Amino acid sequence: MTTGDPLAALAAHALGFVKPGDTVGLGSGRAAREFVHALAARVRAGLRARGVPTSEETERLARELGIDLVGLEAEIVLTVDGADEVDGDLNLIKGHGGALVRERIVAAASRRQIILVTADKLVETLGARGPLPIEVMPFAAPFCRRRLEDLALKPTLRMYEERPFVTDNFNVIFDCATGPIDDPARLERTIRAIAGVIDTGLFLGTADLVIVADDGGVRELVRRKPR
Asked: Which end of the chain is more exposed for a tag (fewer CB within 10 A), N or C?
């Protein structure tokens, strides 16, 4: 059984995959922050490990905690991150925290992506739990909004303190009320074809392992490899 904070249990479990000398992608969001704290404690205890942050917020936290940081010139052994939704094939929706583009780049540069979630993030169909974030260039925002509306995706410009939310890449985000997504790959292709779209929160086939915390403890879900 899990005791205390389930995020702490997830972070402790993920630490078991970090080996001395590893360069680790450091994700964004609550679960990822917990992992950064856990990794920093191990570093202070003598573990040699470096991090590649996926957001400016994660970079600030890692530096404050004493984790050495490098860029994409390093070979990233694994990335530890969170997700907003995970389906039965370990496809993901990410980006509710606004760091989806850098999260995708760091994941792509990594040998392995490990996702930490609580059981409430597990869904039968992506889009069933919350919105799909779409990052777009500010210049293209009016055009992208119209095209997303044409697709019946119900885009809402994300706001922060009565102003449009701006990502670390100086873009804006539309949160789209897709509802359950029947064909995530097709929707991904369709949205990406819109001029001005930078990225979407659909992370399909990127996660190698999802670690889940629930009332029964911590368990691992492994992505099935294609034959």
From this structure: C
